[in-house]
Amino acid sequence: MRDVIIVGGGPAGLNAALILGRCRRDVLLCDAGRPRNAATPLTWGVFTRDGTPPFVLREQAHADLERYETVERRAIEVVEARRREDRFELVLADGVRVSARRLLLATGLRQDLPKIEGFEIYWGTGVHSCPYCDGYEARDRPLVAYGRGHGGCSVALELSCWSRDVTLCTDGTDGDLSDKDRDRLGRNGIRIVETPIGRLEGNGREAEALLFRDGLRIPCSDVFLMPVECEPSHLIGQLGCDLTDKGVVPTKGDYEKTNVPGLFVAGDASRRVQLAIVAAAEGAMAAFAINMELIAEDTA
């Protein structure tokens, strides 16, 4: 039986494996190889690695783990996870069963894009989920916040850090905007368009304009999506984790513990702030907490 199994090979899982390897823990890292940032050309906001392609960061992380002999990394999906009295039992895609004293889920979230022509084409280059990740590169260009209600208003106001040409698009609804939100948007020069969107146009490399179904066309270099409910890993449901109404796992305190004893969740599945460096920090905090629990258990 392993000390720890980590499911997910993004920044959270990789950094947790690194810390636990340095604690000489017997670790199995399982990575299905479907990172959420696969469509993102560059990773921003990472100390000393600002603007590095995601695959380069992963390759370096894999190389770092090679020096820790107690860490095994497998490119495989985990299809089932159950908690038993004193351990977690997992089934891998090849049918192999593995077990561990602690389990860390660093599986991230799956982003479901609005079903608008062009959004998938420009996902990661002109359609984004995080202005803190991609806003600087879109600075001083015509930007669109896609959303409704107070959340859509908040994204539009956030974008005013990077551009004075911001439009909030509610895609065919009245936006559920309060009078207070409408007034605040107006005072900050943010236009509201409530017409249904037809498609996002571009040259194949960059987005250029939003075309609405009534014929209106506005310049648009980048669309930023309001945070929406995302689908977490099926393993989270199998293990009985609590979920918020946004589909993320609420963790206890600062150390990524869940309501399930011995189960930790780090990365996008547990926070709204979805910067790579934040996910990596959460992985480190989870690793610290896991190691302290194991020490307490072994020295009782």
From TrEMBL:
Tree of life domain: Bacteria
Single GO MF annotation: oxidoreductase activity
Keyword Oxidoreductase listed: yes
Domain FAD/NAD(P)-binding: 3-283
Keyword Protein transport appears in the UniProt entry: no
Key words, A-Z: Flavoprotein, Oxidoreductase
Protein name (record): Thioredoxin reductase
Organism: Methylobacterium haplocladii
Highest classification ranks of the organism: Bacteria, Pseudomonadati, Pseudomonadota, Alphaproteobacteria, Hyphomicrobiales
